[in-house]
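STRUCTURE:
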């Protein structure tokens, strides 16, 4: 791991405790009982981040999984790095265009696993037993349509936070996901019933898909508070915050109507996040810090 991706001492301690919590647990299922899992990794000019993510996946102590990489025409060494690994579990596909959810949807079309999860460059599983825990939890809960776990959120500046809450209509009306998309494992058949990710969106495709699922009572959903994935927030920009804001409002209005939208505008934090980023840029420009 290079210095750019090296965790801080405090974060290393937190990750160490999380890993120990995962690795101390005994596994009660035989290898043949675990369902096949597909991890989808959309990439575009991700050469600086791609290695940490792929290494995390290939290190999984899980009997049956595949890594489906969908590249949107990278101009750097991303594809070269991936192909240099020469691992039979990696499948690489290239498409024209690099929109996030178009890449993911292409990966879903190629997925052979019973369960599908999604990682982005820079993200990684906290433990090499993360997949085994997730799929073991799925077996214990009679293979639900969706399982999700806690997620570690980090931006490289503040102490990492854990995201985990119930998947409920009340939270969704407030624009809040139960966890990150990276900590969700969808049954492959779900996408045949409700459709894939909305390619008109740039940031909130996972939230929009969860809204569709939550409003369809036929889906079974289970969750575990165990933290299994690490979500890299360091690349968030002012533009991304604005896109996040407008897409969230659009989705809330589409699914829940005008009154929930007005309530959300009153309580949400994206505007504060935008001005905080803007003021930070001004401070750097005029004060050099």
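SEQUENCE:
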């Amino acid at each position: 791991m290079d210095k750019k991706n090296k965790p801080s001492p405090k974060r290393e301690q937190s990750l160490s405790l999380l890993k120990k919590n995962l690795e101390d647990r005994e596994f009660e299922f035989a290898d043949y009982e675990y369902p096949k899992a597909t991890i989808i990794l959309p990439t575009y000019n991700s050469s600086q981040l791609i290695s940490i993510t792929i290494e995390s996946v290939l290190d999984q102590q899980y009997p049956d999984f595949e890594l489906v990489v969908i590249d949107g025409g990278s101009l750097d060494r991303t594809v070269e790095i991936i192909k240099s690994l020469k691992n039979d579990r990696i499948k690489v596909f290239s498409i024209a265009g690099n929109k996030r959810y178009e890449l993911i949807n292409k990966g879903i079309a190629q997925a052979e696993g019973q369960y599908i999860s999604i990682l982005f460059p820079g993200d990684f599983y906290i433990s090499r037993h993360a997949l085994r825990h997730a799929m073991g939890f799925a077996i214990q809960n009679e293979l639900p349509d969706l399982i999700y776990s806690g997620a570690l959120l980090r931006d490289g500046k503040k102490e990492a936070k854990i995201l985990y809450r119930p998947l409920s209509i009340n939270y969704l009306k407030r624009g809040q996901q139960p966890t990150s998309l990276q900590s969700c494992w969808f049954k492959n058949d779900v996408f045949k019933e409700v459709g894939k990710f909305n390619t008109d969106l740039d940031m909130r495709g996972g939230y929009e898909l969860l809204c569709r699922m939550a409003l369809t009572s036929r889906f079974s959903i289970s969750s575990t508070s165990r933290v299994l994935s690490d979500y890299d927030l360091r690349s968030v920009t002012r533009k991304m915050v604005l896109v996040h804001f407008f897409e969230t409002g659009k989705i809330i209005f589409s699914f829940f109507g005008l009154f929930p939208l007005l309530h959300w505008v009153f309580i949400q934090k994206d505007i504060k996040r935008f001005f905080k980023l803007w003021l930070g840029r001004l401070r750097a420009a005029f004060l050099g810090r």
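REMARK: The first helix runs from residue 9 to 23.
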